[in-house]
Each structure stands twice: as structure tokens, then as C-alpha cells.
TrEMBL record, chain A:
Keyword ATP-binding: yes
Superkingdom of the organism of origin: Bacteria
Renumbered residue ranges of the record's region Disordered: 272-292
Span of domain ABC transporter: 13-249
Protein name stated in the entry: ABC transporter ATP-binding protein
UniProt entry tagged with the keyword Ion transport: yes
Annotated compartments: Cell membrane
Organism: Actinomycetospora straminea
Keywords: ATP-binding, Cell membrane, Ion transport, Iron, Iron transport, Membrane, Nucleotide-binding, Transport
Matches recorded under Pfam families: ABC_tran
An example Gene Ontology molecular-function term: ATP binding
Lineage of the organism: Bacteria, Bacillati, Actinomycetota, Actinomycetes, Pseudonocardiales
Recorded topology in the membrane: Peripheral membrane protein
Amino acid sequence: MSAGDVPGDGARLRAEGVTLAYEQRTVIRDLDVAVPDGSFTVVVGPNACGKSTLLRGLARMIKPAAGRVLLDDRVISSYGPKEVARRLALLPQSPTAPDGITVLDLVARGRYPHQSLLRQWSVTDEEAVRDAMAATGVTELAERDVGQLSGGQRQRVWIAMVLAQQTPLLLLDEPTTFLDIAFQLDVLDLCADLHAGGERTLVAVLHDLNQACRYATHLIAMREGRIVAQGPPGEIVDADLVRAVFGITCAVVPDPQTGTPMIVPAGREIRRQRREAARAEDPVGSGALGDA
Amino acid sequence: MSGTVSRTVSNTVLPTGPVVRTPRVSLRVHTRTVTGVVVLLVVAVVLAAMALTLGDYRLSLGQVVGALTGSGSRAQQYVVVGLRLPRVAVALVVGAALGVAGAVFQSLARNNLASPDLLGFTTGAATGALVSIVLVGGGPTGTTIGAIVGTLVTALAVQALLGGAVGGYRLVLVGIGVNAVLAALNNFLILRTDLSTAVAAQSWLVGTLNGRSWPEVLAVAVALVLLVPIAVAGSRRLDLLGMGDDVARGLGVTVERTRVVTLLVGVALVGVATAAVGPIAFVALAAPQLARRVTGTTGPGMVAAGLMGAVLLLAGDVLGQRLAAPTQFPAGTMTAAIGGLYLVWLLAREWRAGR
Ligand SMILES: Nc1ncnc2c1ncn2[C@@H]1O[C@H](COP(=O)(O)OP(=O)(O)OP(=O)(O)O)[C@@H](O)[C@H]1O
Ligand SMILES: [Mg+2]
């Protein structure tokens, strides 16, 4: 599957011709994207290419300047705010915990869309929170102050909060950033577990391409607000794609552990030579995209 | 949650406190909040009773109760019901309004220093009221509307100056600037008027409960009845806003509407309270924080903040009357003196925490 080829059916969440902009800066223009149901979709791309913006657009954090986002075949803004929150959860890139809040209180807030004046803390709420904390392994931290946790612990607590929301769609913006390799794998394994049942659709932004290839069932590669390629990692990831997206020279070999594509960047000297060659060919600087 | 999550599902009971549950209804009971609110209520009543006995004309508690129930002498009834009761009532309702407003603004700005007095809203309310007094001759309605408009304009200006949630020092600095400009403007307005208006305005500007009576009580009480329920209803959403706009919106909070509605509630409370008694410092700053200490919660806690505000202002007024009797300090001066110390302590603590 290549850029522009959109799986239209079987996508509860999709965007049609959306333009996403902050005041004057347009980050994404006229983009079509569909999140395949039941997939573990991973979004990759260089810094500032618009990954977070795309997620925020899909999760109705930004109102599209043009086009529309559809959730279950209805424009997302036509739902009540809590109704959306019962179908779709977003963990933003760097959430802030209020001062002095305990882990349990934070996770319990994920139940807000299911609550009302007369339904403040139902048995379902309690179970959802307990399960979310158990799944992320933060049960023992229940009464700790979130501000005093390690980065990895805190990240798990936030994931527990969106899990407690119990939505079929879960969007996670860089859930593994700041974590050591063991925690990264933990979080990704957790995502894979959550996805394995088949009822849940996950979208995550990741920076580690090898991890993305290992875990994603559907990969979306972005650059400068556009989708360069999307599809199963095994089918779309090759040296040309990595150069087109990140502008680096590399070899792509089968991962010795999983057989999924593994990116091995070329040595420094070779990469420098390629860069200079590209610059000589195309002094404007868009060379990386041009020769893909 | 699906059964595919392989980790063990623990059976620990979550320490969420008691919940009242029927099949369709479930209500959370925050034991410590309830206890805190009850304690504050008791303190308020005791303080009010004390305030009614104190004064140049000493009365016993029994005499006060007698006067209140209509069995005392005419003189006693006049002193208690005619003079002291309205003053106590004004202190309670104005303090409550300021406490709730403080809780609203502090959680809106996600900053404990963002209170209407430090940020200059109270001075702005005074400016609005003075403009109304000087230009159109005042009157209670005119003063109140002027104060509300003044508060709103100041709040919007400060918001524009700050541009989103910011750290404590920048907030305090902007507040100092805004306060200075508005105080100068207030002086200018007073200088422009004739002597009698100027004297009246000046005495109002120090924030005193002297000579306040039932009309002021009624105005503020009506505002409380109308606005506090809105603040209480919005407090959960305000609390969720503390996790950032995206998280709050993700949970289904209508972020913009919550902000606008609670801002207007806070502005109206400050405006009405200031119109009634003049600018009162530090009650709005200290009440929400002290209330949180009592209830042990992190959220805005509107009811507790309001009660704490009522207690603080009444205590300030009682102290102001009795501390150096027969010399009387205005309540506003007392709260400023006590609150100033509290602010210094707060800043020192924040500074030591390295923020
Ligand atoms: N709130 C904002 N206001 C204005 N511009 C913004 C805002 N957030 C992001 N941008 C801009 O939009 C562009 C895309 O940002 P975005 O956060 O979507 O990138 P990203 O792909 O998530 O990057 P990263 O990998 O660094 O997280 C950047 O140029 C950024 O400067
Ligand atoms: Mg990002």
C-alpha cells in the first residue's frame, strides 16, 4: 500500500481532507487517513512533522480548518463531549499531573466520561480503575503522590488513566519517551496485549523505527504534514522509505529476533557523503524527498 | 476490560472512601471534606456568636440569644439586631463570596497565587465602582454594576498580559503592575471629585464593614445563592482542567465553556463583594488554600473555600474592632496585615521548593 491509498471501510476513525492549523501555521493540509479497525497503528516521522497534530486532530483537540474527522461514520464534533470520550481516549505527549494528586485519584479521573451527578462511583468504575491499574502494574503505587514517581512509573500511571476510560479506540502520543529500554518494551508489550483481544484499536506515535516495525500492524510514515507511506511494516519499510522520511542512508535487514524490518543506519562517513551528493544535486534542500 | 490482559487482576479494595450505592445511584462521600465543612461551620457560628457579644456595650451570650429571639430589652435588641448582626452577616457573606472566587481563579490559573486581590481584580472592581460613583453619582446598583464591569475588564486584561498558565513570580509581578496602575487611577478619580464624595469614596476604598447593613447583605447573599451552585457544579470540570486542556477535553470536559462560565462566576462574586464593602485583601488568596489543608483535597473545594473565607473575614473584623479598642481598624486593613504575612510565608516556601 502506498501514500494516498486509504482503507475506507472498516475504519471507525478516519479523517477526510483535513487541514489542521495553529493560528497562522498550517501543519497538515488536505490529509486523508483511516485507522484500520482492530489495528495497532504506529505513526512515525521526524520531529515537528505533525504527528501530535494529527493525533490531536483525530481526537477533536483541534478543529479542522477544512475537511472532517469521522468517528463511527459521524462527524466527530456532532457527538456530545462525553460520548466521544467513551469511544476514544487520547494520552497527549506531555500531560501534567496536578500538584499532590495520588495515583489512584489520577487513574480514577479516567472514569469521568462514564459518571454523572447521580453516578459518581459505580461498581463498574471501581472495577475499571482496578483493572487498569493491574494491567499497567501500578496497583502498589495507588496511594503515592504522582509527582514523586519516576518517569517510567508516571508514564504507566497515565496509561492506566486512559485505560480506565475503557474506550475501543486508544491514541497514545509517544508513550515510550523518557523510558529505559526495559520500560519501553513493557509499555509496548502492554499495548500489544491490549490490542491482542481484537476489540481495541490502538494508535501510537513512536520514535524507534525498529520497535515500530516490531509492534505495528499498520505503519504510517509522515513527513512535513503528509503521509509518505502506510501499510504493514513488512511491506512498506525499506531503505528508500527511511531516506524519504528521515533523510538518512541506511540498510534494512530482517530483525534477527522477529523477522520484521530492522533499520541499520549507515556509518557517519557514508551518510556525510550522501548528504553532500544530495545537496549538490538539489541545492534547495528537498533532495531527500526527491530521490525517493 | 477484555480477558486478554495477561497480568494478574488484583482484588485489593481501592482506598476511595465510602460510597453510597443503590442499583442506579452511586454517591461518593469524602469523609474528610464533610468533616472539614462541619468544623468550619461550627467555627463560623461560634465566631459569629462571639462577635455579637463583643463591643463597647458588652453582652453575655444569654443576652445575645435573648435579643435575637426578641425577649431582651429594646437597647439590647437594637445593638444586637440593628447594629452587630448585619455587620456579622456582611462579613460572612462577603468572606464567602471572596473565598469561592479565590478557589475559582486559583484553579482556573492552576496557580495558588492567582487570587483576585494579588492580580488586581479587586482594585479593578474598585476602579469600576469609583467610575460609577464619580461619573454617574453611584447608588448601590450603579456601584455594583461598575464593580463587576471593572473586575471583568481587569480579569481580561490580566489574562491577556499573562497568556495562559504561568509560574508564581511572573503572576505576582504582573499583579503588582496592574495593582499599581489601577491604584493610581483610583486616586486620580478621587481627586477629580468634590470633597464629600471623595471622603466617602476614600473610606470605602480601605474596605470596611462599618455602617454596612441589610441591603449589602441581601445583594451579596443573592449573588451567593445564584452563583455558588454554578461554581460547585463546575468544580469537578475545573479540577480536570488542572491536567491540561488536552487531557480534560479527552475526558469529555467542555474546556472553553467551563472556563468562560467559571471566570464569569468568579468575576461577579468579586464585583458584588467589593461593591458591598470595598476592596478586601487576601481573603480570596488564603481561604482556598487553608480550606484545602482542612479538607485534605487537591481540588477547588468551593464550599469549604467559601466557609473559610467567611471565617477569615469575620475573624479579621473582630480582631480589627477589638485589638486596639477603642481604635478600630477596618477589616480590609486587618486582612491585609495578616494576609501579607501569609503571602511572605507562601512565597518563601515556593522559593525554597525551587520553583
Ligand atoms: N500549540 C501550537 N501552536 C503553534 N504551533 C504548534 C503548536 N503545536 C505544534 N506546533 C507546530 O506544529 C508543527 C508540528 O508539531 P507536532 O507537535 O505535530 O510535531 P510532532 O511530529 O509531534 O513532533 P515531535 O516528534 O517533536 O513530537 C511544528 O512546527 C510545531 O512547531
Ligand atoms: Mg509530538
